[in-house]
Design goal:
Enoyl-CoA_hydra/iso (chains A, B, C, D, E, F), 10 helices, three-stranded mixed beta sheet, homohexamer, Enoyl-CoA hydratase (chains A, B, C, D, E, F), 2-enoyl-CoA Hydratase, Chain A, domain 1, peroxisome (chains A, B, C, D, E, F), about 15% strand, fatty acid metabolism (chains A, B, C, D, E, F), six-stranded mixed beta sheet, delta(3,5)-delta(2,4)-dienoyl-CoA isomerase activity (chains A, B, C, D, E, F), Lyase 2-enoyl-coa Hydratase, Chain  A, domain 2, 2 domains, alpha/beta, 9 strands
Amino acid sequence: MSSSPKYQYENLKVHIYPEGVAHVELYRPKRLNAINEALVEDIRVCFNTLGQDSTIRAIILSGHGRTFTSGIDFKDNFLMKGEPDTDVARRAYTKRLHIEWFQSAMSALEKCPQPVIVAMHYGVYGVAVDLCTAGDIRYGTKDSFYTVKEVDLGLAPDVGTLQRLPKVIGSDSLARELCFTGRNMYADEAYKCGLISKLFDTKEEMIEDALKTARVIASKSPVAVVSSKHLLNYSRDHSVDEGLQYTAVWNSAMLQTEDIPKSIQGFMQKKPAHYSNL
Amino acid sequence: MSSSPKYQYENLKVHIYPEGVAHVELYRPKRLNAINEALVEDIRVCFNTLGQDSTIRAIILSGHGRTFTSGIDFKDNFLMKGEPDTDVARRAYTKRLHIEWFQSAMSALEKCPQPVIVAMHYGVYGVAVDLCTAGDIRYGTKDSFYTVKEVDLGLAPDVGTLQRLPKVIGSDSLARELCFTGRNMYADEAYKCGLISKLFDTKEEMIEDALKTARVIASKSPVAVVSSKHLLNYSRDHSVDEGLQYTAVWNSAMLQTEDIPKSIQGFMQKKPAHYSNL
Amino acid sequence: MSSSPKYQYENLKVHIYPEGVAHVELYRPKRLNAINEALVEDIRVCFNTLGQDSTIRAIILSGHGRTFTSGIDFKDNFLMKGEPDTDVARRAYTKRLHIEWFQSAMSALEKCPQPVIVAMHYGVYGVAVDLCTAGDIRYGTKDSFYTVKEVDLGLAPDVGTLQRLPKVIGSDSLARELCFTGRNMYADEAYKCGLISKLFDTKEEMIEDALKTARVIASKSPVAVVSSKHLLNYSRDHSVDEGLQYTAVWNSAMLQTEDIPKSIQGFMQKKPAHYSNL
Amino acid sequence: MSSSPKYQYENLKVHIYPEGVAHVELYRPKRLNAINEALVEDIRVCFNTLGQDSTIRAIILSGHGRTFTSGIDFKDNFLMKGEPDTDVARRAYTKRLHIEWFQSAMSALEKCPQPVIVAMHYGVYGVAVDLCTAGDIRYGTKDSFYTVKEVDLGLAPDVGTLQRLPKVIGSDSLARELCFTGRNMYADEAYKCGLISKLFDTKEEMIEDALKTARVIASKSPVAVVSSKHLLNYSRDHSVDEGLQYTAVWNSAMLQTEDIPKSIQGFMQKKPAHYSNL
Amino acid sequence: MSSSPKYQYENLKVHIYPEGVAHVELYRPKRLNAINEALVEDIRVCFNTLGQDSTIRAIILSGHGRTFTSGIDFKDNFLMKGEPDTDVARRAYTKRLHIEWFQSAMSALEKCPQPVIVAMHYGVYGVAVDLCTAGDIRYGTKDSFYTVKEVDLGLAPDVGTLQRLPKVIGSDSLARELCFTGRNMYADEAYKCGLISKLFDTKEEMIEDALKTARVIASKSPVAVVSSKHLLNYSRDHSVDEGLQYTAVWNSAMLQTEDIPKSIQGFMQKKPAHYSNL
Amino acid sequence: MSSSPKYQYENLKVHIYPEGVAHVELYRPKRLNAINEALVEDIRVCFNTLGQDSTIRAIILSGHGRTFTSGIDFKDNFLMKGEPDTDVARRAYTKRLHIEWFQSAMSALEKCPQPVIVAMHYGVYGVAVDLCTAGDIRYGTKDSFYTVKEVDLGLAPDVGTLQRLPKVIGSDSLARELCFTGRNMYADEAYKCGLISKLFDTKEEMIEDALKTARVIASKSPVAVVSSKHLLNYSRDHSVDEGLQYTAVWNSAMLQTEDIPKSIQGFMQKKPAHYSNL
């Protein structure tokens, strides 16, 4: 495990494993990983940078310390952006740009080409739900709980939960109840509804398993993995026919890859194939 | 509990609770709440009126008496609309307008800004399935059962089930089987597949719990709740990126609300905030 | 049971039941139903032909012999299509057309107007997952397992899995994990996540039950059944409001059917109605 | 010409011609047809009512007196809607509903099933441009001029101009220049760019010609005319393939009309066919 | 010029020029090219076949004899399809399939990868307008005239005019007037509104010029030409951002073509490049 | 006129006028403004920076020296990006990212909130057409000519022309002919088809007039102007109803601006209003 000089952030710890796995940890130890503007910007920059780093093939996101996060940092005046201006329209203009910046940080998990496994323990509050639904695969510990907290701050979630949560869990009734009431959803229910797809006794077991899955993904053809993520994102947002049409064009180039004969050869010779980076 | 003079309908009973909760009951005691044109029109008018009443913050819909409903009222010649005209095209024209009217009554639950909890017991037949899927949250008793009955009448459901059911339960295979066979789905399966998100022993317990949930919702910031419902509806029907863009514009105004400082102050002072109506 | 001369294929066995049920079996006994180009073309032609045959009201697809399929046939050089040409662009052009042909074969299950029940036992590998998600209802035996195998060949699935699987199982996290890792999903998990909606001890029980369900569907009004499938497909790919609008136009003609008075009369007289073919 | 008791409005004059043509005039003689809330509501109600009146087959909209309109009525505090509330979010909520009401009045021209010919003379300011672009066919006199005036009031047009004008005139560059500068476009340029499709020396000639065209339209099969308008609106807002699919469903009923054999018979016998109302 | 044995149709004459240009003529000399079912099917098959023939690089469509076409052939009972069945729903079902077949024949011009120049003289009635708007480039003689005739038959056009005409001419007002009134539009107006982009004194001059343009197109890189047509069709039906995204994927393969270095070399050496077929 | 230190680029000259107008000139004097990667990146950065500079209210883009541009710079190996990699799939992956970067530079004109006037003289080749169609308003001199040159390089345009040109000129037939043949379109035809909306004898007159228009725009309420551009872009890419809905939400905040009372007061007092920056 190396701590790449390329990935130094104030509020994130990044570990690069030689197999092409990056492990990103939320890291604000004094504030229980409370989410402030600086952390959001770090997430945005970190995942955009990882996304352009073809030596990285899979990513894990978890929280350092006692909890995934303690939620939004009230010391940071996030929600007051744009206030100085006295004109409502000008404030609205500034606020919209601010929300779009925030959204782009959460969406960085979705837009980065490599799969992102989000491994969560203890508290997953408010924007942390927005954040984790932008990942590809979600794991949780038995003591984890999930709270769409925005309603208790007097606002509707605006950085991803309302868009992605219902599609992630496939249960409209539950998604709405969580958003309207702000109640906690505990690990069992989160597992049952599919928000998390594996449940672990301890954080350590979870991280170990996440690493194992990440290594499996990192060992596969990056043409296959990156294409699958890209096309899954595209297809979620389009009709089946449009998804198929786009996929046909995409694969008209990608099927010309050397990874396919390599894979078949590996399969025939019963030896794992090794694929070069994208 | 008051019975508002504003909400008098032949086929619905409406109770207004002082906390801002409206409880609407299907009410055709002699016909086991069979759904006829007059009831459909009452639903349309009632939910449109509730939707414009900013003193109402959450709504419950249930069935008065022994069953949620006994299904469509065959004494009402619903399915014969447009028949008098002898020209097929002119009949089609009239029928389309009639279907659109009917759809608008079901969709009134979805379009009204406040969350709607549909609490169902015993029989939920045919159009009742269309109706309940247009609500936000669904509860059911252990003796409830759900039947997409249209196939047995020789028609495809046309007032919402085909659009909303697969999205609500997140299981295409099951939705299709129900629609093609017209079989009953009992409470356990309905709970397992997510059509209903809570299961109750008795109707009384269900109504009590629905009221409790409705009161919780009614106590929250109406800016937050109404925005969440509006944005959930919008986001279900658009790509993630389009949902995010629309949300950013929406919240550019909504984040300027007094409810946010009120909420934070309440949070700091550990006293529940009180929010004015929309 | 008759083996219609109309439905003779090298790689499929088709049985026509007098009740209007067609049972299609993948049939390459020497190759464990491995999927080659000829089989794909047979599927395309067979389901397009069934789709135009109004005497057929429901279809079952299963695998002859020991397994649903052993996956793609490596003896067939599927993945090398377009190779002879030396220009990358011209190869891409040819490959795109080839993928679109392949997609059209899988989508033939979805586009044929009658409901298709896919009944699977033992191995369901790679393109078999694409194939089964294009069906309407999926059944599986306890020894069945499902593998999104493409990643191990160095490519992203391009004939339906990425488009349909997440919508079928309603769990994004799981769908992505399966696509990225290529791991087996066994029958229990497939049942739990909704990929299959019934689980059977043996293949025989499964086929018997599938036939029973198919016969039930075949006994219903074809106007109702065919309309329901068509509108479910349409509504999956459109917003709720667009789905409703299209449905209203569709039913403006379909509600003028003789099947409705027939159904009501049957209902009144407690005798099953008999409906003529489409 | 009769002045139907069904069509009495404070701010509109409606003349019903026996051939099935309605002529609606903006009518606020003391205010040069300045557009206030009452007039907008009259437009909304009038066109919705006409839309349900199958004896009406074509509609003309023009302005009574010296000018089509003098623009928005500043005495009416349109732009201050929602102001009383002191909370920005609540004002935004009210304003949105108010804009949607206003939009629905303009769109009433587009949504009413019959073709609407808008015949304009002299000033066509601000919301009058929104209004006229919602019509089907536009005529103008040589002294007419068109001004997207909103920019000079400090706001973007929000009741239709930005949506429909570029599609109507097919020139993006010009549409943008008009919206950004608020300059007058005179009749010649309006004719050249296609905003109006006929140019007349006098208002009298224009009305006469509009009536002639309206009578021609009213003499045609209402199935054909109403279908064409409906499908043109739908197709403008969808891809070509989606427009074709919707049209095929629509016409599957409409081609069963008696108007087709009537038309063919009339054609053969060289006598005009007479069609009954929708 | 050769008359390819591959392109023999009863109602079309096809001439293949050695430069890769196909000239298709409507050919029913005894019926003035009246459009019947057999001709429609010939168009469908012919353009689908041409679309798969990579030796063909550009296509011209014109009418043999005195007129482009005399319109729909009333001797053919096109509009009576589906009539035998007595049930309205079953007739509607058949009619929809028939319309979709007809649409697919018209759309064959749009879907075939090569550019299609439609060269028209004298009468262009009814479905001929549907047909020509599915082409890429339209030329006309000074004696040509264009009539959206469907309204006079009691139906809305359903094979392309309502979808494509407004997009082709960029004038909504004019498109609607033509559809509602069924009036003739003569060559000058057709040229002015952009329906045709060149105007010719005689049919001979027109065909000669069309051939010249077709030869120019046929001499270009087929990768460039076929990609441009495909992407123009796609972009017309999607947002600018979606069009750009799809184009980027498409060109990620196409930019690897040998045609680019060939083109640059030709440019440098001032010699025309020669490109191999697709 | 000041040359802001904030806007220093190697290949662009930027002049800032005190009224809030920025004049950007393509500036590669030794290469006749040939477009290379460095210039594209300068455009991307410059327009993104201008877009965030609220002191700028309108922008002009023109070409320094003898011609707008001489087209793509063949000395720059644009079209060879991604070549080093030997795997087709990996090259395709790199090329797609490169095209997306290039597209984002062109789209920077469209995405920047202020209106952009593109003033063109003499040659407007290849990517220059992509570039100018991303602007809001286009002016041209009588000696200007426009060439969709990509076809002669063996590729389809991929940075905007195929998406925007047909929507800008509203003539599908012409757009396709230009793309397939690569012929020059001279100023007169460009004016007639609406590609440019004003025609000038000399470059000097054109720049003067562009500055005049830009100053007019800069004097208007920036809330009104920026909202109009944003909503025109949105509405071009959505259905009319979706455009209206989005506009209503947008203006629910923007109508609360101080610019409206300022405007009305200015109007009443017949004195121009002064608006603060966004």
